[in-house]
Amino acid sequence: MTSTRLYGRLLSYAKPYWPGFAFAALAMLVTAATETAFPALLKPLLDNGFAGASAFQVWWVPTAVLLIFLLRGVSTFLSVYAMNWIANSVLRDLRQAMFNKLLTMPASTFDARSSGQLISRVIAEVNGVTSAATNVVNTLVRDSLILIGLLGWLFWLNWKLTLVVLALLPLLAGLTLAFSKRMRRVSRDALKATAEMTRSVEEAIFGNRVIKVFQGDEFESGRFKKVNAEFRGQSMRLAVAQALQSPISQFIAAIGVAVVLTIALMQSRAGEATVGDFISFVTAMLMMFGPLRHLADINAQLQRGLASAEAVFELIDEKSERDTGTRTVARVQGALEFQGITLAYPSSDRKVLAGLSVNVRPGETVAFVGPSGGGKTSLVNLVPRLYEPTEGKVLIDGIPIADLTLASLRAQIALVSQDVVLFNDSIRNNIAYGAASVTDQDLHAAIEAADLAKFVASLSEGAETVIGDRGVRLSGGQRQRIAIARAVLKNAPILILDEATSALDTTAEASVKSAIDRLRKGRTTLVVAHRLSTIVDADRIVVIDAGQIVEQGTHQELLDRGGLYASLYARASSAGHDRIDEDSSSQS
Question: What is the DSSP letter of 327?
Answer without folding.
Answer: B
